[in-house]
Amino acid sequence: MTDGPGAASPDLSAPSLRRRLASFLYEGVLLFGVLVTAELVFAPLVQQRHALHMRLWGMAFLFAVLGAYFVGFWCHGGQTLAMKTWRIRVVTRDGLPLTPLRALGRYLAAWLWFLPPLAMASLQARRLGAAGTFAAVAVYMLAYASFPKLHRSRQFPHDILSGTRLVASHPRA
């Protein structure tokens, strides 16, 4: 992409759903290491002797660590390591880099993928049993993951809400 008169407009085509989900899975593997490391910092810091001791503070700390991870990467280059590997970039609807506030909004909105199933699992586990709860959570997760196939912009709900979009990122020549 070049600057100046006659510059080509950025390619805002959405990556395939398969690539996005592969990046999502790879991100999960990488985040395991990030969260374990964060927990190894938190536990000695608060002198945690038992996993349930200061549990809510620990979860809040991990939530903040995840937020810093995503907001930091999305604001500086628009890609986490997993997104870079799968050649995906997050930008605004207009193709511009994310501001910290927009990146934070996207991070918070992305929890729509996880909070409803977590709430569903905790509230309905007794009523539906393990198999029923698993089925209900699986249906929600699959519906959320399929949303880009149905929406004209080919974006997830959290991208639509936060004014962002995932685009195919091409290697620089």
Structural topology:
Layout lengths: L16 H29 L9 H21 L5 H5 L2 E5 L7 H11 L4 H36 L6 H6 L1 E5 L5
Antiparallel strand pairs: 1-2
Helix pairs in contact: 1-2, 2-4
Descriptive tags:
about 60% helix; single chain; about 170 residues; two-stranded antiparallel sheet; mainly alpha; 2 strands; globular
Query: How many strands appear in the DSSP assignment?
Result: 2
Cα separation of the termini: 10 Å
Q: Count up the helices.
A: 6
Determine the strand fraction and express it as a percent band. Answer: 5-15%
- Can you tell me the overall shape? globular
Label the structural class: mainly alpha
User: What is the CA-based Rg, rounded?
Assistant: 19 Å
Give me the strand/helix succession. HHHEHHHE
Q: Unreliable stretches, pLDDT < 50, 5 or more residues?
A: none
- Averaged pLDDT, please? 85
Major β-sheet profile: 2 strands, antiparallel
Strand order of the largest sheet: 1-2
Share of helix, binned: 55-70%
